[in-house]
Structure to design on (130 residues):
């Protein structure tokens, strides 16, 4: 199992994963809230839904910035960034997204399998032997 060189890399992976999961929950919730608010003609709820939509856009931008530097330690492919590279034949998506599967795996199992090379990586820092 592969490990990372620094604690900041592990934190970057976890932050990008958390932002991706938050974005995947907040965007549909904002849309559904906006539809409901418009059907009920509720002005306050409409403002809340618009605020949630703006928050989803900000989260998307932050996740995009962080995800560009989340690379697999073996193949160096950005696992949380959206690329059109060929995926491994065993890699299958979760709800249509390979990135979402990696993000949930990082958050809940503290490991992930790269969808490009299919190697398992642990969210731990390599010990430095002297």
């Amino acid at each position: 199992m592969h490990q990372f060189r620094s604690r900041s890399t592990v934190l970057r992976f976890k932050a990008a994963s958390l932002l991706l999961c938050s974005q995947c929950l907040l965007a549909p919730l904002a849309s559904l809230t906006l539809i409901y608010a418009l059907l009920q003609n509720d002005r306050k709820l409409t403002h809340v839904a618009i605020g949630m939509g703006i928050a989803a856009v900000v989260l998307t931008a932050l996740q995009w910035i962080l995800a560009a530097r989340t690379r697999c330690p073996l193949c160096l492919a950005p696992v949380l960034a959206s690329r059109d590279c060929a995926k491994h034949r065993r890699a299958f998506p979760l709800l249509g997204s390979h990135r979402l599967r990696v993000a949930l795996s990082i958050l809940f199992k503290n490991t992930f399998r790269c969808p490009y090379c299919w190697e398992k990586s642990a969210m731990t820092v390599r010990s430095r032997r002297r």
